[in-house]
């Protein structure tokens, strides 16, 4: 969770505009320049809600890239397997 906070904070700091653009995010987010604006994904100003949205998206991408293998997904996400299982339950994935 702290890593996601750092990524969002860095994107806010380095953004030249009042919104975070895809090019302000690391490539591993899978969002390319010219894609939908980051604020299209988030409603309001809640960092907690934004973190949850991004966390769920990253979990879904990891599961997709590993063919649904939860152990490999946990390794990609750099979290423990039990933590991933808990998040899957929380986000109803």
Describe how the helices and strands are arranged.
Layout: H1 2-14, H2 47-65, H3 70-77, H4 81-90
Short note summarizing the structure:
This protein is mainly α.
List keywords for this structure.
4 helices; mainly alpha; 93 residues
What does this structure look like?
- It contains four helices and no strands.
- The protein is mainly α and 93 residues long.
Quaternary status: single chain
Strand content bin: under 5%
Span between termini: 18 Å
- Low-confidence stretches at least 5 residues in length (pLDDT < 50)? none
Can you summarize the main beta sheet?
A: none
Using DSSP, what is the number of strands? 0
Order of helical and strand elements = HHHH
Rg, nearest Å: 14 Å
Percentage of residues assigned to helices: 40-55%
The structural class is mainly alpha
Number of helices: 4
Give the overall shape, derived from the CA principal axes.
Answer: elongated
Mean pLDDT: 81
